[in-house]
Design brief:
The complex is a heterodimer of chains A (about 325) and B (about 250). In chain A, about 30% of the residues lie in helices and about 30% in strands. Chain A has about 325 residues and is an alpha/beta fold. Chain A has two domains: about 5-185, Rossmann fold; about 205-325, Rossmann fold. With about 250 residues, chain B is α/β, with parallel strands linked by helices. The longest helix of chain B has 17 residues, at about 35-55. Chain B starts with a strand and ends with a helix. Classes of the chains: A alpha/beta (about 325), B alpha/beta (about 250). The complex binds flavin-adenine dinucleotide and adenosine monophosphate. Adenosine monophosphate binds near residues 6, 39, 62 and 123 of chain B. Adenosine monophosphate binds near residues 61 and 129 of chain B.
C-alpha cells in the first residue's frame, strides 16, 4: 500500500469550499512521504468537477459515479468508498472535516478496522515518526496521534488549517469508477435541503459586532453586553450555547452552523473560541477578546486581549466608549 | 419504543486543565466532572420521545466508578434504568475499542433506538456513535436536532453547515448522534432524585482491551502561541481607556 488519496466533497456539482484545503493537505502529506497523491470525487455526473482537477498535481483523479450517489447517503458513500479504497490501496485517505465527512468517514474506517483521526490541525515528523495533531478539550490542549494499525490511515483536516491556494498545479489523468451498489443497500432516505424561516438578521454586512458567549452566565446579564453594543453602534451576536438556551435568537449565532462574519471589529465577550465558532469570525479585520482564562483559544485569533472578569471590564468599557463619543 | 442513550462523563468546562506528569493525558486529581453537553440533549430527546410514544429509556456509560454520579443524575431526570460499563482503562482504548464495549452492552438490550451525543467535550472525536452503529450494522444519522417517530421508523432533522437542514427518513433500529439545542433541558426535581434511588443500575465489566489499537495518543501539551496578541492590563478603568485608544486610532471604529 502506498500513496495518498484525497476524497473531495461536492453537492449537486458544487465544491464544498473545504475540499481544496484537504487537497492541499493531501499533496503536502504525499510530498513529505515521497509518494503520489490522487483524488476522488463521489457523486453522479461529476465530470465537470473532475475536469477542474485535471489541472492539479495529482497522479490520478477518480470520478466515483453512480445514480445511487446522486444524493448523499452514509450507506452509499461508505459502500462506494470501501470499494475504491480496496482497489486503490492508498496508505492514507484524507478528507476535509465537514459535517458530511463526520457522517460517513468513521463508518468507512470501521470497515477496515481502522479509526479516523478526525479534525487534524497539523502533520508532523517527530521522534515517534509521523504524528497527526488534533485538539482536545475544545482547543485547550493539543494532542499527537499516531497510526499503529496496519490498514489505510484515515485522516480528516480541520477547516482553515491548510490553505486552498497552496494546491499545486500540474496535470492528472481522470478515471471513472462505477462502484457496485443496489438500492436496497441504502437504508436512509434523504430529503431536500431547507433553511429555517428567512434570516431576520444579516450580520455579514455589519461593520462592528459585539458577540457574547457562555461566560455571561445567565440571560439577565446579556443587557450589559447589549449596552456596550449600543454604545459602539454594533450588532449583537452570540456563540451557540447562548442561542441554544434561547437567550438570543438563532439568527444571531456566529459559527459553522450559524453566520459567517467579517466585520472591521469583532469583540468577543466570554467566548472560549471553539473551532466551530472561530470558522465563523476568523475573517474579521480586528478581533478583541475579553476572557477570564488566559489560555482561552480565542486569544489565538485576537489582536488585543484582556484577561479579566467581563462583569468588571464590559461596564467600564461601555462608560469609556460613551465618554469618548460624547467628547 | 426502547431507547438506549450513551452518555459520557467529561471534565467541567471551566476546569483548570493541567497536563499529567507522563504527558499522555490530563491530571485528573482535582477535576470535577459533568455530563457531556450534547449527551444531556440526547437524554432529553429520549425522555420526550418516551413521553410521546411510550416505552423505556435506558442510559449507559463506560468509565470508572466516578461515572455513577452522571448515571444517577440521568435517572433523576427520568431515565428508567442505567447500565454502568466498568472500565478504568478507557485511555488504553481507541474509538473502536470504546465503541466495541458499548456495542457489547447494546446487544444485551436490543433497543429500537440508540442516541449518543454528536461529540465529546474532552476528546472531541465526533465518531463513537457512528462507529457503534457500524459495529451493530444499523443505520445512523448525525448532528440531529429533531426526531419524530413514524409508521415506518423515524423522520429526523439533520443540521448541515451554514444554517441549512435536511429531513431524513430511516428505518428502526437506528442510531442518532444528537446536537445541542434541539430541546430545552429539564432539571432533576426533588421527587426525581428520590425516585432515582429505587431505580436499577446494572454494572457490567468491560471486556479486556484488545492487544493492538488502530491509533494511539502519544502526547498532550499546551498549544504553542502562534499569534502575537497584545494583552492589555491594569484596572478595569485603565483597560477600558486603553481599549478606547485602540478603537479610535488602530481599529478606527469610534
Ligand atoms: C457540529 C457543531 C457545530 C457547532 N456550531 C457552532 C456555531 O455555529 N457557533 C458556535 O459558537 N458554536 C458552535 N458549536 C459549539 C462549539 O463547539 C462550542 O461549544 C461553543 O462555541 C462554546 O461557546 P462559548 O465559547 O460561548 O462557551 P464556553 O466554551 O463555555 O466558553 C465560555 C468562556 O467564558 C469565559 N468566562 C466565564 N466566565 C467569565 C467571566 N466572568 N468573565 C470573562 N470570561 C468568562 C470562560 O473562560 C470560557 O472561555 C458547534 C459544535 C459542533 C460540534
Ligand atoms: N465512555 C463512554 N460512555 C458512554 N458513551 C460514550 C462514551 N464515549 C463516548 N460516548 C458517546 O459517544 C459520543 C461521541 O463521543 P466522541 O466520539 O468521543 O466525540 C458521546 O457524546 C457519547 O454519547
Amino acid at each position: 500500500m502506498s500513496g495518498v488519496l484525497v476524497v473531495l466533497e461536492q453537492r449537486g456539482g458544487t465544491w464544498n469550499r473545504m475540499s481544496f484545503e484537504a487537497l492541499a493537505a493531501g499533496q503536502q502529506l504525499a510530498a513529505k512521504l515521497g509518494v503520489e497523491c490522487s483524488a476522488a470525487v463521489v457523486g453522479q455526473a461529476v465530470q465537470p468537477l473532475v475536469a477542474e482537477l485535471a489541472g492539479k498535481k495529482l497522479a490520478k483523479v477518480l470520478a466515483v459515479e453512480h445514480v445511487l450517489l446522486k444524493e448523499y447517503t452514509a450507506d452509499g458513500y461508505v459502500l462506494a468508498l470501501e470499494q475504491v479504497v480496496k482497489q486503490e490501496a492508498p496508505a492514507y485517505v484524507v478528507f476535509p472535516h465537514t459535517y458530511q465527512v463526520r457522517d460517513f468517514a468513521p463508518a468507512l474506517a470501521t470497515k477496515f478496522k481502522q479509526v479516523l483521526i478526525s479534525d487534524v490541525i497539523a502533520m508532523q515528523d517527530g521522534s515517534a515518526g509521523l504524528v497527526f495533531v488534533r485538539q482536545l478539550l475544545q482547543g485547550k490542549l493539543n494532542a499527537d496521534y499516531k497510526q499503529t494499525g496496519e490498514g489505510p490511515c484515515f485522516v480528516s483536516v480541520q477547516a482553515g488549517t491548510f490553505r486552498a491556494e497552496a494546491v499545486e498545479a500540474g496535470t492528472a489523468a481522470a478515471v471513472t469508477v462505477t462502484p457496485a451498489l443496489t438500492a436496497e443497500q441504502i437504508r436512509n432516505k434523504p430529503g431536500e435541503l431547507f433553511r429555517e424561516s428567512a434570516q431576520t438578521v444579516d450580520l455579514s454586512a455589519a461593520p462592528v459586532i459585539v458577540s457574547v458567549g457562555r461566560g455571561i452566565g445567565e440571560q439577565d446579564n446579556i443587557s450589559i453586553v447589549e449596552e456596550l453594543a449600543t454604545a459602539l453602534g454594533a450588532e449583537l451576536a452570540a456563540s451557540r450555547p447562548i442561542c441554544d438556551n434561547g437567550w438570543l435568537p438563532m439568527a444571531r449565532q456566529v459559527g459553522s452552523s450559524g453566520q459567517t462574519v467579517s466585520p472591521k471589529l469583532y469583540l468577543a465577550v466570554g467566548i472560549s473560541g471553539a473551532i466551530q465558532h472561530l470558522v465563523g469570525m476568523k475573517g474579521s479585520k480586528a478581533v478583541i477578546a475579553i476572557n477570564k482564562d488566559e489560555n482561552a483559544p480565542i486569544f489565538e485569533v485576537s489582536d488585543y486581549g484582556v484577561v479579566g472578569d467581563l462583569f468588571e471590564i464590559v461596564p467600564a468599557l461601555t462608560k469609556a466608549v460613551l465618554a469618548a463619543k460624547g467628547a | 419504543m426502547k431507547i438506549l442513550v450513551a452518555v459520557k462523563q467529561v471534565p467541567e468546562r471551566d476546569a483548570q486543565i493541567r497536563v499529567a506528569g507522563d504527558g499522555k493525558w490530563i491530571d485528573e486529581g482535582d477535576l470535577s466532572y459533568t455530563i457531556n453537553e450534547p449527551d444531556a440533549y440526547a437524554l432529553e430527546e429520549a425522555l420526550q420521545l418516551k413521553e410521546k410514544n411510550g416505552g423505556e429509556v435506558v442510559v449507559m456509560c463506560a468509565g470508572p466508578d466516578r461515572v455513577l454520579s452522571t448515571l444517577r443524575e440521568a435517572l433523576a431526570k427520568g431515565a428508567d434504568r442505567a447500565i454502568h460499563i466498568e472500565a478504568d482503562d478507557l485511555g488504553e482504548r481507541d474509538t473502536l475499542g470504546v465503541a466495541q464495549i458499548l456495542a457489547d452492552a447494546v446487544k444485551e438490550e436490543a433497543p429500537d433506538l440508540i442516541l449518543t451525543g454528536l461529540q465529546s467535550d474532552d476528546l472531541g472525536l465526533g465518531q463513537t456513535g457512528v462507529v457503534l452503529a457500524a459495529l451493530l450494522g444499523i443505520p445512523h444519522a448525525t448532528i440531529i436536532m429533531q426526531v419524530e417517530k413514524t409508521e415506518a421508523g423515524l423522520t429526523v432533522k439533520r443540521e448541515l453547515e451554514d444554517g441549512w437542514f435536511q429531513q431524513v427518513e430511516m428505518p428502526l433500529p437506528a442510531l442518532l448522534t444528537i446536537q445541542s439545542g434541539g430541546n430545552k433541558l429539564r432539571y432533576a426535581t426533588l421527587m426525581g432524585i428520590k425516585k432515582a434511588k429505587t431505580k436499577e443500575t446494572k454494572t457490567v465489566t468491560a471486556a479486556a482491551a484488545a492487544g493492538s489499537r488502530a491509533i494511539t495518543l502519544e502526547r498532550v501539551y499546551l498549544p504553542e502561541k502562534q499569534k502575537k496578541t497584545e494583552m492589555l492590563t491594569g484596572t478595569p478603568a485603565e483597560i477600558a481607556a486603553k481599549l478606547v485608544e485602540k478603537l479610535k486610532f488602530e481599529v478606527r471604529v469610534i
